[in-house]
């Protein structure tokens, strides 16, 4: 039952249902004036800024939601296209923040976005490798 529930949300149909909500959340986070909320962004967890951990964790899912747009990662070029598109999404969000007067571009945020994308992408590659080996 737990396997069925997990597949319901991570499987192709679940990703299709959640994809618009995920990208809507990214758009809200990109445009929202979050610095006016009074949330301290310079807290550290295990020596890493909490803000950067948040960036990495949000972008961890980006490759998962782009996966179906490029097929099932069967071809090598498609695998790289998923990674490159997800990194481009992170770059786009930081680029838009550069243009907004109440937000700012931060190279460290871009690095955290890319790290999250890369970790999510590697996890998908590992899972797809084990699924194809069965």
Give the overall average pLDDT.
80
General form: globular
**Classification by helices and strands:** mainly alpha
Assembly state: single chain
Residue share in helix: over 70%
Point out poorly predicted stretches.
Answer: none
Order of helices and strands: HHEEHHHH
Q: Please summarize the sheet with the most strands.
A: 2 strands, antiparallel
Number of strands: 2
Total DSSP helices: 6
Beta-strand residue percentage: under 5%
Cα radius of gyration in angstroms: 16 Å
In what order do the strands lie side by side in the largest sheet?
1-2
End-to-end distance: 21 Å
Short description, anyone?
This protein is mostly helical and 134 residues long. It has helices at residues 2-10, 12-31, 50-59, 62-66, 76-99, 107-133, and strands at 44-45, 48-49. It has a two-stranded antiparallel sheet.
């Amino acid at each position: 039952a737990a396997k069925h529930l997990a597949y319901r949300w991570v499987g192709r149909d679940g990703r299709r249902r959640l994809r618009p909500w995920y990208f809507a959340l990214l758009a809200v986070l990109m445009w929202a004036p979050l610095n006016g909320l009074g949330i301290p962004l310079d807290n550290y967890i295990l020596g890493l800024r909490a803000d950067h951990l948040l960036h990495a964790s949000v972008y961890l899912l980006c490759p998962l939601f782009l996966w179906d747009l490029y097929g099932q990662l069967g071809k090598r070029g498609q695998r790289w296209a998923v990674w490159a598109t997800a990194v481009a999404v992170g770059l786009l969000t930081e680029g838009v923040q550069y243009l907004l007067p109440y937000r700012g571009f931060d190279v460290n945020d871009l690095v955290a976005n890319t790290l999250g994308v890369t970790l999510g992408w590697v996890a998908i590659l590992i899972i797809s490798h084990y699924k194809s080996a069965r």
